[in-house]
Known about the structure:
Elements: E1 7-16, E2 37-46, E3 51-61, E4 68-74, E5 86-92, H1 97-101, H2 103-106, H3 114-133, H4 139-156, H5 176-189, H6 197-209, H7 235-248, H8 256-268, H9 275-288, H10 291-303, E6 306-308, E7 311-313, H11 323-338, H12 345-360, H13 371-388, E8 395-400, E9 406-411, E10 420-424, E11 429-437, E12 441-451, E13 469-474, E14 481-486
Antiparallel strand pairs: 1-2, 3-12, 4-11, 5-10, 5-12, 6-7, 8-9, 8-11, 13-14
Helix pairs in contact: 3-4, 3-5, 3-13, 5-6, 5-7, 7-8, 7-9, 9-10, 9-11, 11-12, 11-13, 12-13
Amino acid sequence: MAPSVLGDLNVSISAEAVQSHTACDNEIVNVPERGRIDTVTKSLLVKAEGTEKTDTYNWLLCPTGETLTEEVELQLPKNVVDGSDRISLSVLGDILGRALKNLDGLLQMPYGCGEQNMALLAPNIYILEYLRNTEQLTPAIRDKANKFLTSGYQRQLNYKHFDGAYSTFGQGSGNTWLTAFVLRSFGKAQSFIYIDPAQMKEPTSWLESQQGKHGCFVRLGKLFNNRMKGGVTDEVTLTAYITASMLELNMSVSDPVLYGSLSCLKNSTSDLSNTYTTALLAYTFTLAGDMETRAQLLQHLDTVAIRERGLLHWTQTSSETSASLAVEISSYVLLASLSASPLSTTDLGYASHIVRWLVRQQNAYGGFSSTQDTVVALQALALYSTRVFSREGTSTVTVQSPSGGQHLFNVNQNNKLLYQESALQDTEGKYTVEVKGSACASVQLPSLLPLKHTLDIIRELPVQNLKPAVVKIYDYYQPSKFKSNLPQYVFFPLIFSNI
């Protein structure tokens, strides 16, 4: 059976008793009037072959009486599977609406090793904080989240050492960065689930024991996936990360440990060549209440900011184009800009330019490209959303398709969390998005493209008695397996991971 179309298809199978002159076990075949035929119908989802790729276009459009317009030109790649491309448009009235829509993806059951568990656990907390701070946290979501947070918390304890440190598999040397990440997350989770005070005290004591005489913390341990820790690559950034974690837990700046680490970091502010370090330091000194150092760091960051069409972001260097690192740096600048008190209209206006750039980097599910950029960006966006949350305003979103069709969406305070979506027919050409009114609209245009890929297999050595073999491909964060029978050559199982 070979399907000719994609989508849900009904497949029916029938078994029927028919009249026959052939004896059956020396008896004459008798066909009953009722029950002589039985039919079973099942729905079968037919998907396109190839590897799915999603190109996502995001806009956060906040009109203040005028009309805001954005355009995008879509063009299909040459290796797309014929007839399989799909495109849709969705509109929400909430800046974190995409993440809220995909709570099943963000509020998911943590699993795996100590790194994987935290990668899935941490974003949940910031989503919950945003919902709570804007009074949108329903009992149903809270109950579900508490269950997942409790599971993730208990599972993480499996990777704890006897001395209070954490590591990827709970063996070998403790990892200073991962321990700080766990401590930071557990501290924020305390407002939603019960965290044993000992599970806060022991990691804190271990981290304090890793502080050098100069005040900075010593790097210990290895990560299975170094992308987990983002731009934290040396003692200064590690110290800033640990210090910020402790300050977020409301430790006093007069505490000897924090006093020492802040002194060490203060000595590092003379070298501002590393943009990531500067952004993280700006956030850390903001939390510490050192407004003079904060102003110095933010002033330098403003001089190296990348400005384009009203958007604002930062990269490590002019040659460093890592999207993940750019998101993380920009998110720390946003956190530093919003964590001071009081905030002026100018501060919020400056932050809005960063937010609009960050929103454009989101994937179709409301996350970003890797672990730490998603964690830090959601924390920053949640803080911004809380600062600017409003229950007023309405807007109308008009989308013009290449063939001339129009799609209208209304955004108001009664439906700002309503996920409005419409399937689009034109998969190529120019789309125009217009927003009129006084409320922000989050607009996303994702295109799902199954792509064909070829694998060239070359036999370098002659092999006798060839037999079929199986190649298994594993994704580090997704345990699903893909198997392919290769009848011409013998292969050892191959394991790939996004390390």
